[in-house]
Amino acid sequence: MAEHPRKRKQRGASPTPRERMERGYAKAEERNREAREELEPLAHGERPAVVTVGAIVTALIAISIVTGWLAGTEVNGEKPRFVQALAPALLMGMMSWGMWRARYWAVLGFQLILVFLIFSAVYGLALQAATITQILATLALLAVSGTFFWLMVKAMARIQMPTRE
After folding, report:
1. Which of 14, 134, 145, 146 matches a 20 to 30 Å C-alpha distance to 113?
2. Is 67 contained in some domain?
3. Residue 4 reports pLDDT greater than 60
4. pLDDT at residue 108, as a whole number
5. Shortest CA distance to 108 belongs to which of 66, 165, 65, 162?
6. Residue 96: which domain range?
7. Structural domain contains residue 44
8. Angle, CA 100 vertex, CA 94 and CA 103 arms, to 5°
9. Which sign does the torsion angle of CA 128, 134, 139, 145 carry?
10. pLDDT tens digit string along 124-141?
11. Are residues 121 and 129 in contact, defined by beta-carbon separation less than 8 angstroms?
């Protein structure tokens, strides 16, 4: 039985890697433009629900830091100095205020914290979690922080980055 040589389709020169990359970027930019057009801008005073939840969570964290310090909570056997408690409490308080007012910078800062939580959870899951309880708790942290992060992306797009004057 003789083998038949395959016939190649005659085409023009194949695109270069750079042309394929540029075509891919153009398609992605078109999809991004369509997604931006579908977004509805926030009305004056409007705040996405996920941003409201984030503002409440950061306010509770700020309050818990101050309350813990006032209650005399010890860290590694020592009570933290006032500044060591004040700095994160102020940061969380400012972030809470900013998210309550639907400020882009505050949502972006909250997402940065979520990224650290996600990386920490993945690290903990891969290298530290030894018991089923630790594994489940780490998976829960990963699910909550990952979901929060995902929902914040669209909220940030709606808030829009402020224009510079």
Report:
1. 134
2. yes
3. no
4. 94
5. 162
6. 49-159
7. no
8. 75
9. negative
10. 999 988 899 999 999 999
11. no
